[in-house]
Amino acid sequence: CETVRTPYKRHRTRPRLSPGQKAVNRAHARIRCRVEQAVAELKRWHVVDRFRCCPHRAHTIIAAITVLNRIETRR
Questions:
Q1: C-alpha distance across the termini of the chain, in Å
Q2: For residue 62, is it within any domain?
Q3: For the chain, how long is the longest CA-to-CA vector?
Q4: Under 8 Å CB-to-CB from 66, ≥6 apart: which residues?
Q5: Number of domains forming the structure of the chain
Q6: What are the pLDDT digits (tens) for 43-61?
Q7: Domain for residue 41, yes or no?
Q8: Looking at the domain assignment, is residue 9 inside a domain?
Q9: Between the CA atoms of 6, 7, 8 and 12, what dihedral angle is there, to the nearest 10 degrees?
Q10: Per residue in 3-26, pLDDT tens?
């Protein structure tokens, strides 16, 4: 079962975020940045345009493509 994680948000009526909450938000931003870069790369190469398979299988294929792409771009 996958979980959805969201950053902490401060509202006008609540006190400021604690240092722990700010640290969680920074960690979330780091992960989100990498995910957004990977999705942008997949969109650029039109990888997911024609997927017609099970989402679990698509996840494995996309993960493999992302790893291979990173290896290739580091050369």
A1: 36
A2: yes
A3: 51
A4: 38, 41, 42
A5: 1
A6: 887 877 777 888 778 888 8
A7: yes
A8: no
A9: -100
A10: 778 899 998 898 899 999 999 999
